[in-house]
Amino acid sequence: MAHTRQSSKDSNANHENAGRFRISWGAFSPFSSSALAALPENAQRPARYTRQDDIPEHDQDVDGERPTIRDYNAIRSVPPQVRVPKKVATSLKVEGKVWFANERTWISWLTLAVLLGTLALAMFNASHEPVARSFAYIYAGISVGVVIYGFYLYQSRITMIRKRDPGHYDAIIGPVLVSTLLFFAVLANFLIRVQEL
């Protein structure tokens, strides 16, 4: 009897610990309840974003039938007559590849940030010169900036995908800015080392 009470207490403790882990991990997830609650309440698309099918506007004829048109997408040589379907407003479907593309982009930004952070750490640990240490701080700062920019881009695109926003998903400023910062950091490092010779 005492053994069963002890095992039930252990299982309750394990369940509480698992619940705490789930709650703490959920705070960092972009799909957590707190992240979803932070989305705007009125997330409806404007009227201009509803999907319009390429179906012509037609009224019914005397018999209550819709008119027929030629189906030029038919495989046969003579296109048959096809009734014009009713226009039905449908929402846009978001395919899985859109979500995965966004996650791949986020992982690419993380990869770049880890590489820059590794370079900064190697420069910081390998040399005790003030020039190398100062450039290690510069590369570490760029690495942190890349992580923040990548996370912002990831979250903004998730919001756009959820809203079915057909807006621009390209971000040209970020890669150009990171490339420019890295170019000038490497150039300054090179010029300072050449002047020391």
Derived from helix and strand composition plus strand pairing, the structural class reads mainly alpha
- Which of globular, elongated, flat, extended, rod-shaped describes the shape? elongated
Please write the string of helix (H) and strand (E) elements. Answer: HHEEHHH
Residue stretches low in confidence (pLDDT < 50, at least 5 long) are 48-53
Based on DSSP secondary structure assignment, what is the total number of beta strands?
2
Strand content: under 5%
Q: Mean of the pLDDT scores?
A: 75
User: Which strand order spans the largest sheet, edge to edge or round the barrel?
Assistant: 1-2
Query: In angstroms, what separates the terminal alpha carbons?
Result: 82 Å
Biggest sheet: strands, sense, closure?
Answer: 2 strands, antiparallel
Number of helices: 5
Radius of gyration: 29 Å
Helix amount, in percent? Answer: 55-70%
Describe this structure in words.
This protein is mostly helical and 197 residues long. Helices cover 60% and strands 3% of the residues. The protein contains five helices and two strands. A two-stranded antiparallel sheet has the order 1-2. Helix 3 (96-126) packs antiparallel against helix 4 (130-162). The longest helix has 33 residues, at 130-162. The chain starts with a helix and ends with a helix.
Keywords summarizing the entry:
197 residues, mainly alpha, two-stranded antiparallel sheet, 2 strands
Summarize the structure.
The chain is mainly alpha-helical and 197 residues long. It has helices at 2-26, 33-37, 96-126, 130-162, 173-196; strands spanning 68-70, 81-83.
